[in-house]
Amino acid sequence: MNGTAHRHKKRFGQNFLRDRNIVERILSAAALDPGDRVVEIGPGMGALTDPMLSLAGEVHILEIDRELAARWRERPEANLRVHEGDALDLDWPRFLTTPPYKMVANLPYNISSQVLFKILDHRELFSRLVLMFQKEVGERLCAGPGSRDYGILSVLCQLWFDIRRVTPVKPGSFYPPPKVDSVVLSFEPLASARVPVEDWMGFRRTVKAAFGQRRKSLRNALTGGGWSVAQAEEALRASGIDPSRRAETLSLDEFARLSRQLGAPPSGRD
């Protein structure tokens, strides 16, 4: 972005990408063409945005920083759309009205997990996502059953997307440099859920409850989600799952079977 330097704001998790090699790898993974509509959360100084404005037909940027949003609104590009506000609070379907979109972003690390939950709720909007995360979060997203990194987001994202690593990113690729390594991942939506899921919210509720107390057995962890021990045991046995197992050992198919057997908790807890 042209103009005077912008002072980064720590409260917004601003670490501005400045490594052209990383930018090129991200754009290559996104495979943009003039017919594409793109969404970017946190454009910052435009390391990704500037080339995307040349490559894509329409670029929507979501910027919480009032000063940066004002500067982006001064840009002359006819294909730029500026949406000021918190990406977590903005009503995406209100302005993303002609899907599919590609999302390409260096996500602010302090909200990356919450953004993923919102993406999952609006997954029908996207044909591809290329996103940067703190390395630790990236490892969780790619982890499989039996790994200590396997968790809620691993299960929920792998249900709907093929996820692959694009490139590692070192702290020196940013200004100011973060204290952690990063990784870029691509998400390719599946035509349907990887395993049959009849009730998405029920599946999500089951996964959250199972990992809510991950050091406990499934029998005990599920009680934190509103089911009684007896109900948890009955559903687990009907699903062919040993009640003494822990959440990180279950496959996607086992979570799907368990959610079908559990149904909604009697307490009505979400």
Protein model, in words:
It contains eleven helices and nine strands. With 270 residues, it is an alpha/beta fold. The strands form two sheets. The protein has a seven-stranded mixed beta sheet.
Descriptive key words:
270 residues; alpha/beta; 11 helices; 9 strands
Q: How are the secondary structure elements laid out?
A:
Blueprint: E1 16-17, H1 20-30, E2 37-41, H2 49-55, E3 58-63, H3 66-73, E4 80-84, H4 92-95, E5 101-106, H5 112-121, E6 126-134, H6 135-142, H7 152-160, E7 161-169, E8 174-175, E9 182-189, H8 200-212, H9 218-221, H10 229-238, H11 252-262
Parallel strand pairs: 2-3, 2-5, 3-4, 5-6
Antiparallel strand pairs: 1-8, 6-9, 7-9
